Amino acid sequence: MNQKIRQKIFELSDEKYKEFHNKLSPTGSNIIGVRMPLLRKLAREIAKGDWREYLKTAESKYYEEIMLQGIVIGCVKVDVEERLQLIRGFIPKIDGWGICDSFCNGLKFIKSNKERVWNFIQPYLKSNHEFYVRFGVVVLLDFYIDETYINRVLDTLDEIKHPGYYVKMAVAWTVSICYIKFPEITMTYLKNNSLDDFTYNKSLQKITESLRIDNETKLVIKNMKRR
Where would one find the signal peptide in this protein (predicted)? Predict the structure, then answer.
């Protein structure tokens, strides 16, 4: 099965897209160059068949092979606990922000299982592994910035002390979206937090880059930068 899938992935490759993607990804040498809509279509085809056997024997040599596994996990019809077990097995394969963020975005089941998944991601948020933590942060970003969870999200972000660049950037990105959706609550947080200077200043930068923030507010935010 997996040799056929690898062959199919290569048939879908786009050389120009590969060149573009190589510039963005730290795993560039293993990129075949397949656009996401095509990978999603292939994942849906796999999900209709013996997807458990596919995931059990899936190859992970190429970026797209790992990405495809993640998409399949997100779209198969399965109960919550089995899906969480599949996620637990997939997370160690995440070695870059592209796979991490696309995988998280595809986990739509979280919308109706928020408290269960909140508990599930806590160990990852406390991990020493950079992309385990980023996984947890991006899940917060994608599914938990709402009225019920906003304060818990900000408290959680404040406790993350991992030194990894991709963790810091994910935290900053999440703080900026918290501000865009809940400006008053997040402003209070920004005035009293324990973020390191890089993450704090990057959060401010991302807020000011948003088209949803007016110029007057952007000026206030810029003046909050730590020197």
Answer: none
Residue type (1 letter), 203: S
Does residue 27 register a pLDDT over 60? no
Domains and CATH numbers, the chain: 120-226 (1.25.40)
**124-151 burial code (b ≥16 CB/10 A, e <16):** bbebeebbbbbbbbbbbbbbbbeeebbe
Structure tokens at 204: 């401010």
Q: Look up tokens 């796999």; give the residue.
A: 46
How many angstroms separate the most distant Cα atoms in the chain? Answer: 58
| Dist. CA 43–CA 73, nearest whole Å | 9
Report field, pTM of the whole predicted structure over 0.90? yes
The answer to whether 153 touches 178, Cβ cutoff 8 Å, is yes
What are 91-136's pLDDT values in tens digits?
999 999 999 999 999 999 999 999 999 999 999 999 999 999 999 9
Of the chain, the percentage scoring pLDDT greater than 90 comes to: 91
